[in-house]
Amino acid sequence: MNTNRGLFYNSTIKNLCIGRRYEFSVYLANVCKIDGLINPNVRFEVRSAAPNSSVLAQLDSGSVPVNTTVMVWKKYGLSFQPPTSSIVLLMISNVDGGAGNDLALDDIALRVCSDNGNGFCDSQNG
Predict the structure, then answer these.
(1) Which of the residues 20, 64, 71, 124 has the least number of beta carbons within 10 Å of its own beta carbon?
(2) Before 51, cis peptide (omega within 30)?
(3) How wide is the angle at C-alpha 30 spanned by C-alphas 87 and 108, nearest 5°?
(4) How far apart are CA 55 and CA 64, in angstroms?
(5) DSSP 8-state secondary structure symbol assigned to residue 2
(6) End-to-end CA distance of the chain, in Å?
(7) What is the C-alpha separation between 126 and 59, in angstroms, rounded?
């Protein structure tokens, strides 16, 4: 994906269990094989759903390095505990597109950090 600075992934998740710990993660790779181009740099955010949309957790990938021989995948992730049953997962490019900032994404995941249950609660019991 060749992207410009700004939001490029936005997903609302509902029926989470309030207070349970979750992990939002993704594998990223820089697809450019030439040094000197713009390296991808992604901010991951977990926000509470509207109306207040406050930041619950945030992580910057930093510069995703180029490898001139083979594409290298690296997992990025952050954990959070939702105060409400609905959250928004965001990925935001911190750098401009153009010559570089080409990245690949794989295995976007939201998982519960526990072996008790699947992490999703009945919408009635939030």
Answers:
(1) 124
(2) yes
(3) 25
(4) 23
(5) B
(6) 36
(7) 26
Which secondary-structure segment (H or E) carries 12? Answer: strand 6-13
Longest dimension (CA), the chain: 53
The C-alpha atoms of residue 120 and residue 124 are separated, in whole angstroms, by: 12
DSSP 8-state assignment for residue 17: P
pLDDT tens column, 50-105: 777 899 999 999 999 999 899 999 999 999 999 999 999 999 999 987 888 899 99
Q: CA quadruple 76, 79, 82, 83: dihedral positive or negative?
A: negative
Q: Copy the structure tokens of residue 105.
A: 């994404």
Give the SS3 label for residue 71.
Answer: coil
As to burial, measured by CB atoms within 10 angstroms (0-12 exposed, 13-18 middle, 19+ buried), residue 44 is buried
Q: Of 67, 6, 61, which Cα lies nearest the Cα of 28? A: 61
